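Supplementary Text 2. Reproducibility record for the structural model of the 289-residue chain.

All settings were left at their defaults, and a single model was retained for analysis rather than an ensemble. We include the record here because the model underlies the residue-level annotations in Supplementary Table 4.
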Amino acid sequence: MIPQHCGDVGIAEVSFPLTEKNLRKHFLGRRSYTKTKFCAVKSGKDWAVIQISKKRTKNLFQPIDGIKILSLPERTFFVHEPDLDVLHIGNLLKVQSKHPGKMVVFQGRFEHISFVDVKVPARIRLIDVVPPNPSKLESIVKELVGESLSLLKIDVELINILDLVKKSKADVVLLPCRSSYDGAADKIGKRKHYFLDQAPELSEKQIKSSVLVGCSLSARIFEEIYGSKPDLANICVRESMKATDGIPTISRCCKIKKDIDVDGDLILVPWGANVCEVAEALRIALGSS
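Retained model, structure tokens:
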């Protein structure tokens, strides 16, 4: 588990032993800031971490009506590293690797406090579409993790648009957009190829003898432009390659316009996902790995 932001983590200093009974007695009924989701609790040299739920009101401070004990002192380790960026996933994995099996509470740069509780090396899967090469998701994840990449076991599964084209015997090939072509003319050969986002004018014969490489949204666009259903080579992960083996899996989906969508083990980001969106998906994947 990794909090989305250090702002999600509250801090409390108490004078009693950090037992489950004492923590529940102390926190239940107290008021907490609306954005606080977790609390790192300190008693002397001991630390514990709890997750809190609140009765929602219109006020900024709301009564706590439930707590979940995430770790007690015997499993909680505190680290003070003034230069540590507590929002950098690679840094957190590095800290975690030094304290396996522990919930690590850390105070880092700008005195921000957060925590990490991930089993390392953590295994995740990336399913992405190429070209362009290299895979967008793999590239961003490697940038996010940096030098701590060895602390992840990343299974990468690629859906190669041009391989799908090569398997088809259609005379005309429709690709989602120009970036999916990547100059690989040898895979398409002498066949006509077009890009759906440019809404090319096609004859009735070309429409009937075409293959569309894309997803259900691409098929809807094709049908609206040309008035018939396409022969679809489906690249949709949600429809064709669902993750069912318990490995947290990150992929892209054009139906996701913003934020993240979690469907069991499948964590979907927008097709044009930015670094922040992939980072959030990675945080979620590590929290369930």
